[in-house]
Amino acid sequence: MRAEERQHRILVLARQTGRVDVADAAEEFRVARETVRRDLSALERRGLIRRTHGAAYPVESAGFETTLARRETQQVAEKRRIAAAAAQLVGEAETVFVDEGYTPELVAVLLPTDRPLTVITPSLRTASLVSESDSTTVLLAGGRVRSGTQATVGSWARDMLARFVIDLAFLGANGISREHGLTTPDPAVADVKEQAVRSSRRRVLVGVHSKFGASSFCRFAGIGDVDTIVTDAGLSGPEAHRYSLLGPQVLRV
């Protein structure tokens, strides 16, 4: 098998499963682990994957984005820890924006239900989940629904958010890097996220460690635009410190 063909198959595998282990790929393609590492280095240079210790994750780009169903199967334990820690940051907030995506959805179901709370979200699933609480008022942003994420985008959603002053926003991102900030593949999604950042007094970014160092097509905020980053311990302490130097508190759970 030629290197180009093998790299293509590794990328397909990464996108199908959400992760490629060096040892498993070496066994599957019957090559040395060092060969797989060279393949992963080549894919990383092209911005298609993000390497971590002994493995690699696909980078969402302008031409590739995972569905919500796929995100529900990837790094679930880490996402649940992140959500639990993030939900502790609600404080006295009375109005909360919850972004589209699986990790923000996990945060939403942990929001307090023993007091009045208004939740604004573009996510149909999040709106349905939190509306089960009698003490929670849900405002669903209008617009075009994206099938893969079950969330609304477009000028209606953006303009609706522009009318609010929101106490706290829980945000997700497809890529998080010191150089490019917070990014996402779709310009329409970026518009909604950017307005949520503008409309919120306090902003919390939630994301697993594999998103760090990656960048996607559309930038919607800088690292310094968020107050707190909540991620998992897969992000090294020194790297977390580098992000904290740009402004936010970084929590590793």
Write the layout of secondary structure elements.
Layout: H1 3-17, E1 20-21, H2 22-29, H3 33-45, E2 49-52, E3 55-58, H4 68-71, H5 76-87, E4 95-98, H6 102-108, E5 117-121, H7 124-130, E6 136-140, E7 144-146, E8 151-153, H8 155-162, E9 166-171, E10 175-177, E11 181-184, H9 187-199, E12 200-206, E13 218-221, E14 228-231, H10 237-244, E15 249-252
Parallel strand pairs: 4-5, 4-9, 5-6, 9-12, 12-14, 14-15
Antiparallel strand pairs: 1-3, 2-3, 7-8, 10-11, 11-13
Helix pairs in contact: 1-3, 2-3, 5-6, 8-9
Give keywords:
three-stranded antiparallel β-sheet; 25% strand; Rossmann fold; single chain; Arc Repressor Mutant, subunit A; elongated; 2 domains; alpha/beta; 253 residues
- What is the number of strand segments? 15
Q: Unreliable stretches, pLDDT < 50, 5 or more residues?
A: none
Q: What are the secondary-structure elements, in order, as H or E?
A: HEHHEEHHEHEHEEEHEEEHEEEHE
**Number of helices in the DSSP assignment:** 10
Note the beta-strand portion: 15-25%
Which geometry do the CA atoms define?
elongated
Number of domains: 2
CATH fold node name of the largest domain: Rossmann fold
Largest sheet: 7 strands, parallel
Please state the CA-atom Rg, rounded to the nearest Å: 19 Å
For the record, the CATH class of the largest domain is: Alpha Beta
Characterization of this structure:
This protein has 253 residues and is an alpha/beta fold. The protein has two domains: 56 residues, Orthogonal Bundle (Arc Repressor Mutant, subunit A), CATH 1.10.10; 185 residues, Rossmann fold, CATH 3.40.50.1360. 38% of the residues lie in helices and 25% in strands. Strands 6-5-4-9-12-14-15 form a seven-stranded parallel sheet, sandwiched between helices. The protein has a three-stranded antiparallel sheet with strand order 1-3-2. Strand 5, helix 7 and strand 6 form a beta-alpha-beta unit. Helix 1 crosses helix 3, helix 5 packs across helix 6 and helix 8 packs parallel to helix 9. It is elongated and about 60 Å long.
